[in-house]
Design goal:
The complex is a heterodimer of chains A (633) and B (102). Chain A has 633 residues and is mainly alpha-helical. Chain A has a two-stranded antiparallel sheet. Chain B is elongated and about 50 Å long. Classes of the chains: A mainly alpha (633), B mainly alpha (102).
Chain lengths: 633, 102
Amino acid sequence: MSSTATTAGAWLCLLAPLGGTILITLLGTRIPRVAAAWIATTSVFVAFAGAVWAFFGVHAQSGHFGEITMAWTWLESGSFHVGLQLLVDPLSIVMMLIVSGVGALIVLYSIGYMDGDDEERRYFAYISFFVFSMLLLVEGGNLLLLLVGWGLVGLSSYLLIGFWHERPSAVQAAKKAFVMNAFGDATMALAFFVLIAHTHSLSFAIDFNVHLSSTAQNLVALGLLGGAVAKSAQLPLQTWLPDAMEGPTPVSALIHAATMVTAGVYLIARTHPLFEQARTVELIAAGTGALTLVVAGLIALVQTDIKRVIAYSTMSQIGYMFLGAGVGAYASGMFHLLTHAFFKALLFMTAGLVIHAVANEQDIHKLRGVGKLMPFTKWCFLAGALALVGIPPFSGFFSKDSIVASAAALGTWYGWIFWACGVAGALLTGLYTFRLWFIVFPGEPSAFVREHHHRHHGREGALTMLVPVGVLALLATVGGWLQWAPRWDPFTTWLQPAARTLAVAAPTNTQEYFTSAATVLAGVLGIAIAWAIYSERRLTVPAAPFWRRLLEEKFYFDIAYDLVFYRPAAALAAGLRREVEEPIVLQTGTDLGDTTIATGSLVRKIQTGFLRTYVFFLAAGAAAVVLAFLIAK
Amino acid sequence: MLGPGVAWYVALAAFLFGIGALGVLIRRNTLVVLLSLELMLNSGNLALIALSRHFHNGAGQVFALAVMAVAASEVCVGLGLVVAINRRKLALDVDRLSELRG
């Protein structure tokens, strides 16, 4: 019974969104736009039902090990087999529930958000295709299927970022995201080649210790880390994520906050046996996370676009998850992934409500005081903001503190650096989140808001938008109660069979309490500073033009990449065109033609049209042949 | 074996062939060009027959008969053309009969 439920639920979960995409695509303009929207929404809700079904299937199993179900052998090459197989274990169940659950709410939200767009059907086909790809990524039963899902989410992310293709900036952002992600895909593919060469297998169940030399282990782990870093927008491949905010807001909520960008964390948790063999690389992952969470938090302080602030906050929170997964506390990382999906989707969706209500304006200074006109949005945003900062009893408190405590549990010098980064990150989180809050929501509405704000049938937005926001606000508030590490830990226990927390990264209760106190204090301090600066105006931001400029230019990453990669490549291309293409390739064709014509006009002179000329040449030729024979003889 | 040696026959044939070839190259009158062609063909015949006798091999004589047949048919077609051209009141000049010139 449980086995059937597990497999049937998993297949249903995977295939329902694909069915939705195909249906919308095939029906095309024969169905009204709103029907396409509801097909997509229903298909994702069906996927969520499948995920729940599979969850109960695994729950009923003794040991909760989950299982692999195989449809057929997909590739076969000598001793190398890859099956079209799904892996349903506690880890993938968690991801399936997040992807399809939060996904369903966000797709429902987009019905209201995208209403009236010219190409709604295309949007809904893309978004259910994204949900399918993401589910394939998390359910794939071997590394190759994981890579297929990995590539497909990259594709759907590209399609959705560039959804408003009449905007050049959106097209630019889509290309940037795709290229950055392709870099990660390439390093992952290289890692897989190394794996195939050494083990002839891409199964999750390889015993890496037996089959791989330590060099190979490090190479493979580095390759996987490259993929994870690119997909999850960590340093140094982070520059695509803020630009990806060019897409519609529900896309930002689903893909660039709740699900796709967290795939890197899932990858580390999924391939943790390998990362544990290559412990140095795993700690590099943790260090990347620690660095990113501070850098992104700093950049978020000076952004003026409401979506970009939240985007940098996403990078920063994924930094926490990388830190958790990197030190070996996979369950803590995954738990933060879960709560982050709730509160970050909530923040994006409330921001979407504001943007939608105020003439698509995203500048926080123009949106000043919008909270007075939109009380529901305001309180929901506050719930998300408190969860993000990690103030108890909101969900972020329960997940973020365990990660920072795990860093403390390492106890080594780098463990304490990670810990300090985590606490500093909490301070920054409080500061940038409540800077946003104090600028946008409280206070008297600005003239711009008064002029442009409009209500939707007497409400703050369509019902399809308000309901998911309400549900997520509830989840962001209570979702963290699932686990409070020092007292009860059902989430960690649930993940035990798939990703057991390393002993070195299991904090003692003292470390937990101590870290909680530190991060909450840091968060409250951040909020207090934001309050003093942006609400009471008792403090002013110190004028430090150099630092301000450094942050506004996002630590010059974009400019550096432009100088180091884009400019030389463009110069090389222009040079090749000037030196090779034009003089050699193009000129060759012209020269061939010219020479043929010139030779032809020479030869045509003997074509007199007089019979006697031809006879003369005939006779002369015959005479020449005879002469040649005579001489040769 | 009586009479002149085979070399004389071959030399005569070559001489006649040269005259014929010159005629084809130089003369413009279609009729004379045809005549010169006949001369060349028959100089060939002469060489064939002379060498046939020299080598005691009948094949050459058979060839000569075949060449005569070819020559006869060629003259038929050629003279037919000349008559047709004449009837249409065109000049019997090979240099001016150049409608096919590209």
